[in-house]
């Protein structure tokens, strides 16, 4: 016979909790047979030492006790055919008990929150101006423009706007180069060389290297500052050279 778990007989390893555990029917039968055999062995050893009346009494007690035990075992065997339904019902009752416990705990937590946490809770003041505007006009004019920009795509440019934009870019960027000019000082042309630094030994001189280094370190302002300082230094150097030559040539007789 396939072992059948009997619910509520003892606290076994498979179950537990308030409703008791379960034990295998085969294990229960083995326990009962082993107990009966042990009692019968002990009775066979003790009966020869007793009188005839005591023997009859002990045999009767053993028979009645064993008969009652096996009658209960027979009832369990007959009942084991419907043990699956009982086990399913026990699981349903356990689930319902757990749900009831969760409901009780939830109610307790909500009551504690209402009594302790939400005592000083207050609702914010309602935005009446927005509500009146929405109810009367069906829209809200104070809504930030960034919301519309994120949700509603902007209208595409027309053909004339595209031509105007390209024509304007042609004056700023020509042939992929942006030219910056400072009157009576310098004119610098910048471009992008495929993401690589603008250092080529056959094209760059020392000034271009300095401008590129400042451009990479401090951006456009750093490059312009370096070029401005260079132009001023060059102008001062040129003025010094011209003054020195005048002092040596034309003004040598007038200067001591």
UniProtKB/TrEMBL annotation:
Superkingdom field: Eukaryota
Main location (coarse class): nucleus
Subunit-structure text: Component of the Mediator complex.
PANTHER family tied to this protein: MEDIATOR COMPLEX SUBUNIT (PTHR12809), MEDIATOR OF RNA POLYMERASE II TRANSCRIPTION SUBUNIT 14 (PTHR12809:SF2)
Compartmental location: Nucleus
Function of the molecule: Component of the Mediator complex, a coactivator involved in the regulated transcription of nearly all RNA polymerase II-dependent genes. Mediator functions as a bridge to convey information from gene-specific regulatory proteins to the basal RNA polymerase II transcription machinery. Mediator is recruited to promoters by direct interactions with regulatory proteins and serves as a scaffold for the assembly of a functional preinitiation complex with RNA polymerase II and the general transcription factors.
Protein known as: Mediator of RNA polymerase II transcription subunit 14
Protein's organism: Operophtera brumata (Winter moth)
Gene Ontology, cellular component aspect: core mediator complex; mediator complex
GO biological process, one term: regulation of transcription by RNA polymerase II
Domain Mediator complex subunit MED14 N-terminal: start-end pairs: 23-173
Keyword Phosphoprotein: no
Species classification: Eukaryota, Metazoa, Ecdysozoa, Arthropoda, Hexapoda
Example GO molecular function: transcription coregulator activity
Keyword vocabulary terms for this entry: Activator, Nucleus, Transcription, Transcription regulation
Pfam families hit by this protein: Med14
Family statement drawn from the similarity comment of this UniProt entry: Belongs to the Mediator complex subunit 14 family.
């Amino acid at each position: 016979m396939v072992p059948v778990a009997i619910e509520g007989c003892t606290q076994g390893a498979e179950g537990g909790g308030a409703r008791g555990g379960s034990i295998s029917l085969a294990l229960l039968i083995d326990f009962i047979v082993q107990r009966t055999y042990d009692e019968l062995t002990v009775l066979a050893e003790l009966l020869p030492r007793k009188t005839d009346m005591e023997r009859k009494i002990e045999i009767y007690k053993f028979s009645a006790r064993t008969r009652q035990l096996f009658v209960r075992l027979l009832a369990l065997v007959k009942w084991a055919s419907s043990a699956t339904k009982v086990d399913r019902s026990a699981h349903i009752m356990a689930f319902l008990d757990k749900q009831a416990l969760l409901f009780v705990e939830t109610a307790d937590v909500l009551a504690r929150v209402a009594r302790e946490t939400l005592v000083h809770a207050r609702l914010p003041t309602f935005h009446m101006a927005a509500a009146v505007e929405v109810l009367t006009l069906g829209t809200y004019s104070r809504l930030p423009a960034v919301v519309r920009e994120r949700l509603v795509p902007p209208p595409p440019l027309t053909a004339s706007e595209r031509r105007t934009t390209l024509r304007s870019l042609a004056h700023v960027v020509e042939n992929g180069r942006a030219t910056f000019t400072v009157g009576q000082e310098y004119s610098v042309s910048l471009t992008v060389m495929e993401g690589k630094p603008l250092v080529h030994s056959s094209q760059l001189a020392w000034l271009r290297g300095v401008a590129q280094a400042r451009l990479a370190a401090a951006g456009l302002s750093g490059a312009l500052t370096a070029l401005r300082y260079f132009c001023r230094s060059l102008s001062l150097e040129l003025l010094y050279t011209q003054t020195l030559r005048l002092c040596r040539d034309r003004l040598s007789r007038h200067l001591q």
